[in-house]
Amino acid sequence: ETKPRIPVLWLHGLECTCCSESFIRSGHPLAKDVILSMLSLDYDDTIMAAAGHNAEAIVTEIVEKYKGNYILAVEGNPPLAEDGMYCIIGGKPFVDQLKYAAESCKAIISWGSCASWGCVQAAKPNPTRATPVHKVPGLADKPIIKVPGCPPIAEVMTAVVAYLLTFDKLPTLDKQGRPQMFYSQRIHDKCYRRPHFDAGQFVEQWDDEAARQGHCLYKMGCKGPTTYNACSTVKWNEGTSFPIQSGHGCIGCSEDGFWDKGSFYDRL
Ligand code: SF4
Ligand code: SF4
Ligand code: F3S
């Protein structure tokens, strides 16, 4: 309560905005508490009231005023082909805005699979050369926290922010740069259908008796055995459910290159 709220610049490159959509639905903590009480979200071109030159001036103001003391949150990624012309913000390539804002930040949060891995716009043949944040040539060498998922779970997003603000340090990251507390286990390790997998009870058709009984979706292409995320523990919509619980296999949306790893419905 006594600490000044830390400024955050939330930039948007090539993306679909559903990472933001997820974030604003966090129940614990409530997104409004994160935005209004825990941090100072000074720039977010999707939800801010300001527009045009007034909005762009805020980026410069924060970068100059809070050198080394603001968090850079990135949703989406920059396309590098044609000098970045496939994503223009305020008349300039997004990659330039990203590099400028990264230069003086304290740390970078790569929201979602777009910023973390590239996601659908980087899928083959990737005509715009969409590039995940950590692979952007010439980007300042700053700590990067990857929070992958398409989108990431709302409470995982707000928990990462809460951790940063509470402890004033990065959460422990795994070798791929993801917070260990949410990405150290496979969906398969904590899936409630796992006993059916172990017993060899598999759904073979979407409408067969095994589907009605809630058996394992492995033979329908479930990527839970190779996907690291917290969906089977934290779940979605404040712990209500997750894809497998709704009857569809995991498509591995938090994994690097999941669009190019074969059909969502092919067995592993
Ligand atoms: Fe949208 Fe997925 Fe990219 Fe998030 S990671 S902006 S949900 S496409
Ligand atoms: Fe594993 Fe998927 Fe089967 Fe769950 S439904 S036990 S994650 S293969
Ligand atoms: Fe994505 Fe699989 Fe979770 S598809 S939302 S990682 S269950």
Automatic annotation (TrEMBL):
- Residues in a coiled coil are none
Enumerate the spans annotated as NADH:ubiquinone oxidoreductase-like 20kDa subunit domain: 16-163
Q: Which cofactor does it need?
A: [4Fe-4S] cluster; [3Fe-4S] cluster
Q: What is its EC number?
A: 1.12.99.6
Decide whether keyword tRNA processing is in the record: no
Cytochrome-c3 hydrogenase C-terminal domain location is 183-264
Q: What is this protein called?
A: hydrogenase (acceptor)
Organism field: Methylomonas defluvii
Task: Give the stretch of the parent protein shown, with its full length.
Answer: 45 to 312 of 363
